[in-house]
Amino acid sequence: MSPTSAAVAEHPWPRSEPPGLTPDPEQVQLRESLRGLLGKYSDIEQVRTAAATGPGYSPRLWRILVDDMSVTSLAVPEHYGGLGYGTAELAVVLEECGRALVCEPVYSSAVLGTYALLVAPEAEGNPLPEVLAGNLVATVSSLDPATDDLRSTPGPQGWRVGGTISHLIGGGSADIVIAPAETASGPILFALRPPKDAVRRELPVLDPTRRQATLTVRDCPAVALTAPDTTDTACTRLRDLATLALACENTGIVERLLEMTVDYVGTRQQFGRTIGSFQAVKHRLADLLVSLERARSASRYAAALYAEDPDSARLAVAVAGAVCTDAAVQAAAEAVQLHGGVGFTWEHPAHSYFRRALGNEAAQGDARSHRARIAALIGV
After folding, report:
1. Gap between the Cα atoms of 201 and 205, Å rounded
2. How confident is the model at residue 134 (pLDDT cuts 50, 70, 90)?
3. How does DSSP classify residue 192?
4. Which of 54, 145, 151, 353 is the most buried (most CB within 10 A)?
5. Is the pLDDT of residue 334 over 50?
């Protein structure tokens, strides 16, 4: 047996299909309800208008998503005020948010922020109840020491944090920021509420529907969510969740772009026939369909595994990151080209999806970086 084969054999691959992989009636109903809601409140023009406002999203739609669809509490255990579902259901939400190009803080607050606060749900001062209620919006830093430059010291009234966080998604308006900070004992993951005098600087971004900012705080009160010896594990799980979340979102993006392009080529005529009848166009669309099915399988499988055990899902998450990133970028490029001249105008919806796909790639790494992680995980 070769070293590679031995490494794969030793890796704890699941021996049976995880229960959450096959959609159940509740997940189907959740998808239908969310798609109908977003079709009413989040078409492309509404998204672009909301993204250009002060907070970068529609507070009205955010309130509806929290109150009517329970996006913040969906995957939270019941004894902490949630509905007790898991990442398989979150995957449904994220796919639909990707389809509609939602700019509300579902990814940053309802998914990453909530899971980060659940690391220490009973810690004194944990803002989890307010985040679940949608009264406070949370966000999580990149968890990368290269962009997180925070220091923390204990005081008589608790921890105090100072420093700068860069490339913070939704950082221009977030109420709660979760990030690691260095302490005398080692790094600790903190939840902090930036005061009014915190310096927030919006950054130029490719995707205006998911804004980023640099945040600088001084002597800011903070709640410790980990101990120095548990910080690395918590951050690794959160990074995996971020990769998984964007993989699911990318799956929704591919699905919508394929539908949009099929509709267009079925009506656009050239040389007296629809361009969708040309063999070359059919082949390109067939390739996109294959990419969609691969992305859907990879992201849903990873979500189902993560729901059972985040640590055993690490390889599946990396695979989903690679497959779904490639699929989204490919689908966006094909949609622009197959729409012809109109597709090359910035005003066309395909360009907003293209920007989101490239923004997601920058946020969690391109397909090559995910494949490098796969190789490391299986010992190649």
Report:
1. 12
2. very high
3. E
4. 353
5. yes
